[in-house]
Structure formats: C-alpha cells, structure tokens
Design goal:
single chain, alpha+beta, 2 domains, seven-stranded antiparallel sheet, five-stranded antiparallel sheet, 9 helices, about 30% strand
Length: about 325
C-alpha cells in the first residue's frame, strides 16, 4: 500500500472518514505470498459510523476496490475480524513478481526495498531503516526470505471511535447496503438508488449543479478522442459514453474538486473485460479519490459490447474549474 491509501472517502459530503490506526505488511518472498493487516478500524465521526462501516465493508470484503488499486495482487481472501476489542481487517494475497507487491529490487545483487505510505510513520520492521537515504523506506538483504513492516497513520489522533459495534451488528445479520458507486452513495435516500435514469437526467444534472453551486464551484469535463489498441474504431467507445455516463464522470470531478485539487488534464486507461466492462482502470496523473470514483462509474455504468475483450482504451479528460460569483 505504498502509493494508495485504502480507506478514502469517495465523497466527503456523504460520509465521515474511516481511519486505520496501524497497518502491518508481511511477505513470504520464497512463496511470493503476502498479508496486509489493518489494525483498529475506526471513524472520526461517531454519527457517521454506519456509513463509514458500509464503506469499509465494501472496500475490504464485498467490493473490488483492492483488486482495482492493486492489479499485481492475486487476492486469496479478504475479511474483517474482531480482535482484542477492536475491528481489524486481513487481506491475504500472492503475486508473480516482487514488483507486483511494490517490493523493489534493482538486480540480483541489490537489496529488497519497500516504502511505507506517504503520511505514515514507521513503527517497526525486521529490515533496516534507510531514512537517511530514502525517507520512509526499509531495506532487506538480497537473500532475505521474508519481510515485516508496521506503520501508523499520522492522522490517527486517538479520539476516533471503533467500528466494532457496526461489525458485530453486521455479523448478527443486519444488512448494510454497500456500493462501489460513489454517486449512488451520494444519492442514497432519494428512493431510487441514485440512478440518474430512474430520477431523470434533467433532475440529476440540476442536483449536481446545485451541489457545486452551493460549494461556490462550477466546472466542465471534456472527454477527448479515445485511443485504442488493435485498430478498433474509437467511435465505438464514444458511443458507449452516453449522457448518463458522461454526467456521472463529470460528477466525480465536481465533487472531488470540492475537497481538493484535481488534475486539469488526465488520462484514464482501462482494459475491456469479456463482459464489455472496464477493468484495471488507471488514472494518470494519480489521484486516489478521483480514480476510485471513475473506476466505479466505468466498471458499473458503462459497457463496450462492440469491443473485443482485452482491448486497451486510453481516454483523455480535461476538466475546467471556475469559481462562481
């Protein structure tokens, strides 16, 4: 998890913010397996505990966010567990090469390197800290068979409230409606699941405009000419990006812009699955919150039935943001 924090609020307006006190990585280099543990999963807003647990449940157990954000991981299991009065998460995976697990090794004679998340503090490791050379990074000797590293989130204040009660209710059978679609989460409670087709695109557009206007922002997303592998007609991609999908993609940018900077120019690369959906979605330059939103929209709300499976698509995006009077 070097580059992408797992728990990030897709829409800060809709939820509080799940927090993880510590994360521990363990790697078996000989068998190319790994385990990631999230320790003390909590919320920074007790009134939003159910919404935050829904997000955690979707990210860790029921959704595909881990697979999307870590394409090199071949995930074997994902689970939430109650341990020592806290809610923890455990992800077990294997990988084909060390690089697939964000482990760097320049050549056979070089040591293994692994770097912790930006904004995290290294707590313990069985390797050698090399902060004087690479801040936040750890090295292991070239013949190492295993790696262990634990770090904490600098934003975890200690005043957070555990999500263990929500987990126990879920284990007892209570239904928590999870969704990979941040737009649907935003619209939840309107009686139609947040689907612009159900509520009417005119209303959805007005709602989006009202949100951005209330925040003193406005903007426009322009989708450029797609580039495809295999000489496929780009018009097939453009045709699939109907008004509904374009609206949702624009909403991703609008809401992300409310809480921070978004790239004015970006490229979304993805691979078309056998079912015609977008998978392995990548945004360049990287932007965690925006990629999460775009990935959900492209994977769930858009299909490319005319495209051959494994077709690679590159979609240029331009977002112009202006301040309203």
């Amino acid at each position: 998890m070097r580059r992408i924090p797992l728990f990030i609020a897709a829409l800060a307006l809709a939820t509080g913010c799940p927090k993880v006190q510590q994360k521990t990585y363990s790697f078996d280099l000989a068998h190319r397996t790994g385990e990631l543990r999230f320790l003390n999963i909590s919320t920074d807003d007790a009134t939003k505990g159910d919404e935050d647990f829904m997000q955690v449940l979707n990210d860790v157990v029921e959704g595909s966010k881990l697979e999307t954000e870590h394409p090199g991981w071949i995930i074997d299991s994902k689970e939430l567990v109650a341990e020592n009065g806290e809610l923890n998460g455990i992800v077990r995976f294997h990988y084909n090469t060390p690089a697939d697990a964000s482990i760097y090794k320049h050549d056979k004679k070089s040591p293994y390197l692994f770097c912790v998340d930006s904004g995290a503090t290294l707590i313990s490791t069985d390797g050698k800290r090399i902060d004087d050379v690479l801040n936040g990074c750890v090295a292991w000797e070239r013949k190492a068979k295993s790696m262990l590293v634990t770090f904490k989130d600098e934003e975890f204040s200690g005043s957070e409230v555990s999500l263990l009660p929500q987990f126990e209710r879920w284990k007892a059978g209570e239904k928590f409606e999870a969704s990979d679609n941040p737009f649907a989460n935003l619209m939840s409670g309107l009686g139609n699941g947040g689907d612009p087709e159900a509520m009417g695109e005119e209303f959805a557009t007005a709602l989006m405009g009202g949100l951005t206007s209330a925040m003193g922002l406005s903007g426009e997303l322009t989708i450029g000419e797609p580039t495809l592998s295999g000489g496929i007609n780009a018009a097939q991609v453009t045709e699939a990006l109907d008004a509904k999908t374009t609206l949702l993609l624009n909403t991703c940018y609008q809401v992300s812009a409310m809480t921070g900077e978004v790239p004015a120019f970006a490229t979304v690369d993805f691979v078309v699955s056998a079912a015609g959906a977008a998978e392995q979605v990548r945004l360049s330059p990287s932007h965690d919150e925006l990629q999460s939103c775009l990935s959900g929209i492209l994977a769930e709300d858009t299909t490319f039935p005319a495209l051959k499976a494994e077709s690679k698509v590159s979609l240029p995006l331009t977002f112009t943001k202006t301040a309203t009077e």
